[in-house]
Structure formats: structure tokens, C-alpha cells
Amino acid sequence: MLQTIAILLIILWLLGVVSSYTLSGFVHILLVVAVVLVLVRIIQGRSPV
Q1: Is residue 21 pLDDT above 80, yes or no?
Q2: How far, CA to CA in Å, does 38 sit from each of 21, 24, 26, 29?
Q3: Which of 9, 10, 33, 37 has its CA 20 to 30 A from that of 22?
Q4: Alpha helices in the chain (DSSP H)
Q5: Contacting residues for 19 by C-beta, under 8 A, at least 6 apart
């Protein structure tokens, strides 16, 4: 499930990059932070909450 969420966030981020009407990049920053946190959790091997 965690991988599904990460893939969904990446797809949404790419859609946001393609479309030009986002809130001055704020959405992109949030999505990148979320993906990084998911990757850190996967690398550390913690179980999802």
C-alpha cells in the first residue's frame, strides 16, 4: 500500500509539473517531501502506520 501511495504522489507531482496552474510551486514541494519521507521509511524498514 505504501508503494501505491508513493506512485500516486509521483504521478500527481508530474501532472502538477505539466499543468501550469499550481499555487506557486507549493504543491510540488509538499509532494516531493511526501515522496522523500515514504522512501526514507521504506529504506529504514519501518512498518507503515
Answers
A1: no
A2: 26, 24, 19, 14
A3: 37
A4: 2-18, 26-44
A5: none
Q: What is the mean pLDDT of residues 19-29?
A: 65
Helix (H, G, I), strand (E, B) or coil at 34: helix
Read off the pTM.
0.47
Pairwise pLDDT comparison (17 vs 48), residue with the higher score: 17
Cβ atoms of 16 and 27 closer than 8 Å: yes
The residue among 2, 6, 10 whose CA lies nearest residue 28 is 10
Question: For residue 25, what is the DSSP state?
Answer: T
Q: Is 22 left (phi over 0), alpha (psi -120 to 50) or beta?
A: beta
